[in-house]
Structures are given as C-alpha cells and as structure tokens.
C-alpha cells in the first residue's frame, strides 16, 4: 500500500514524502525494461533480442533512473488526489531510498497554489480622471514637427537650386495615436524657398491627406484627444487594480515573485535594445548589478503578483470564463501565421485564456465602479 506524508510549509511550499512498496512498482519496472531492451544491442544478439536479464545488467543505474522518471510523477499525482493541493510549478524530487525488490521512498517539493482572500471589491471607490484638454500649443507643436519632417523627405526639391535640401527626417508615419494622418509617397514636391519665413501651408496639408490646413489641424487635435482619452482610461484601470491589490491577502510564493522579476527584466531588455544598448552596458551606466536591480524591484514585483492573484480571485468569485469559441476567435484575429501557429500548443492557449479572463474581469469591475 502506497503511503504519503504531506507537510505544508510557509510561502505555499509543500513537501510530500511517498513510500511505495515493490509490488506497486514492479509493473513499471518491467514495462520500462521491455521498452529499453528494444533499443539495446549486445554482442552475439540482434538489436532488441538479448535476454532481459542481460539487458537489465547492462543498463545498470540507467534503468533505475528511467523507472523513477516515470514512477515518481505518477505516484505524486496519486498522492495529491483528494487533497486541496494544486501545484503551480514543476516538482523537485529527492530520492530517499530504493533497491530493486524493496520499497521506493522519495520526497517531492512543490509550490501550492496560494490561498487568496479579496475584500469587498464591490465597494471599491475610484474616480475616473478628468481628461486634460488639448491646448492649441500642443496642436501647433505636432503640426510644426510634421512640417519639418515633410520638408526633409526624399523627393522634396527646393525651387532655388542654390539652397540645400534638408536631410535626416523620418517618413511613413506620424506621432499621433489614431493614424489618420499619413504622408503620400511617390511624388516630388517643390518646397517654397522665396526667402520668407516658411511654415505649414495648404500644399503641405494636402500632402498629408487633409483637405486644408484647418482640416489638418482638426485631425491632429482629434488624434491628440484620442491619445489623451486612451491614457486616461489606462490610468483609471491602474487605479482600480491598485485598490484590488490593497484588499488582497495572500502569502506570496517565491516562484511567482521570481517569475514577475524576470518579466520585468525582459521588459527592460526590450526598452534598452530599442536604445541600441546591451543590458550589461545599461547596468554599468547606472552603476548597478542585476541583483541590485532585482532587489530594488522586489516590492513592486510583490505588488504586481498580489494584484494579479487578486484579480483572478475576483474572476473566480464572479464566475468569469472564456469559452473555447471566444478563445478561437481571438486567435483567429492574429494575422502573422507564425505567431498563430504558436497557439496550437496548450501552454500559450492557457496563457491567452488567462489574459482574456483578467481583461474581462477588469471590465466588470469598471462597470461596477462606474465613474
């Protein structure tokens, strides 16, 4: 009879000591031996035809290792049936004792899904921030920037051949949120160079896809207002999540904190790469080591994990789910086939389902809070 001893430790660590009699293990041993024997070549025998006793002796400790690879996870799953333990990481196995014909004893260390308690989230009070109005100076700044880049695009030829063409501008997009303004390529345009102060004009406005200069200004204003509204909504959501974090009680497993720190590090690496730097060069410029950086981030990482677990608990309490059809519809939106193929595997689909569930839960909280 298989016996188990479960010891719960702080930070959701669980140690499970399992004892398996030989009678419960012998079938796994024999099946593993048969499987391994099919690939063994011994002198005087065809491949896979050597006597099992000789194969067993030849394999030695390798056979035991192969048996344990199969047996320990299976017996751990059996041991956890009927308990409230749900592992959130890969178990660490430690062999205590095992000899063929005798009992197997091993210890598995796992991180249990932590118990999460969230206060009365239905009473959260958060005011939606008032959007800051777009002022004329902001519109003019974008307009002037677009004009400078328009003049410096390839193909713009000055009327006065004695003057040099501007260089170094970027083309193809605008700094606005909605993308309603765009350069029209393929045509050479003469920029006025009559000695007078140059500035945005009707010709430039039409090149940008607008009817007139006034229409272009209006498009810029709408783009800026859309950007303000978008950021305002992000601030509102962040304020809600901060309140959820405050009323969430959980003993944070170390592995979840480590995962969040790694996520934050990957995000930093991407930002640093965008600046054309290596992470180690960036750290040197800051006079910090990687460990120092992670230590500085730890408090924020703990808040992020607590916030994530709190929102997931709200989802559970409100029975928020994502159906298979909704998940498929989200995957079907992906245009890049290589990216889409990644979601044929189970793990990416689980991550996407979780992300969609968290987003839906946040939308539910926004409706509850109003503002």
TrEMBL record:
Which stretches does UniProt call biased (Low complexity)? 161-190
Put simply, this protein is called Trigger factor
Family membership: Belongs to the FKBP-type PPIase family. Tig subfamily.
Q: Which GO terms describe its cellular component?
A: cytoplasm
Q: What is the organism of origin for this protein?
A: Candidatus Daviesbacteria bacterium RIFCSPHIGHO2_01_FULL_40_11
Query: A Gene Ontology biological process annotation?
Result: protein transport
Q: Which Gene3D superfamilies match?
A: Trigger factor ribosome-binding domain (3.30.70.1050), Trigger factor, C-terminal domain (1.10.3120.10)
Upper lineage is: Bacteria, Candidatus Daviesiibacteriota
A GO MF label: ribosome binding
Q: Where is this region: Disordered?
A: 154-200
């Amino acid at each position: 009879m298989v016996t188990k001893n479960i010891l719960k430790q702080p930070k959701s660590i669980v140690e499970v000591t399992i004892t398996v009699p030989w009678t419960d293990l012998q079938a796994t041993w024999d099946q593993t031996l048969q499987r391994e024997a099919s690939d063994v070549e011994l002198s005087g025998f065809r491949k896979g035809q050597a006597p099992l006793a000789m194969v067993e002796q030849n394999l030695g400790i390798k056979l035991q290792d192969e048996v344990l690879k199969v047996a320990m996870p299976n017996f751990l799953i059996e041991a956890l049936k009927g308990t409230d333990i749900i592992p959130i990481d890969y178990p660490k196995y430690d062999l205590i004792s095992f000899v063929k014909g005798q009992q197997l004893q091993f210890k598995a260390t796992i991180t249990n899904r932590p118990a999460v308690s969230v206060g009365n989230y239905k009473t959260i009070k958060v005011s939606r921030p008032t959007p800051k109005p777009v002022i004329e100076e902001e519109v003019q700044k974008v307009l002037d920037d677009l004009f400078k880049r328009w003049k410096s695009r390839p193909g713009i030829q000055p009327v006065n051949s004695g003057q040099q063409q501007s260089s170094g501008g970027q083309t193809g997009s605008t700094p606005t949120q909605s993308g309603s303004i765009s350069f029209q390529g393929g045509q050479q345009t003469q920029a006025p160079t009559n000695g007078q102060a140059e500035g945005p004009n009707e010709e430039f406005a039409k090149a940008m896809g607008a009817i007139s200069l006034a229409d272009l200004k209006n498009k810029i204003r709408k783009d800026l207002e859309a950007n303000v509204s978008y950021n305002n909504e992000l601030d509102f959501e962040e304020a809600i999540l901060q309140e959820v974090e405050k009323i969430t009680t959980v003993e944070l497993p170390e592995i979840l904190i480590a995962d969040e720190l790694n996520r934050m590090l990957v995000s930093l690496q991407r930002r640093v790469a965008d600046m054309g730097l290596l992470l180690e060069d960036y750290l040197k410029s800051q006079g910090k080591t990687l460990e120092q950086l992670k230590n500085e981030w730890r408090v924020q990482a703990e808040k992020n994990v607590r916030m994530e677990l709190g929102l997931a608990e709200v989802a559970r309490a409100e029975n928020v789910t994502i159906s298979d059809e909704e998940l498929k519809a989200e995957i079907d939106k992906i245009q890049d086939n290589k990216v889409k193929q990644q979601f044929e595997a189970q793990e990416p689909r689980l991550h996407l389902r979780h992300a969609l569930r968290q987003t839906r839960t946040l939308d539910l909280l926004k409706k509850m809070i109003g503002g």
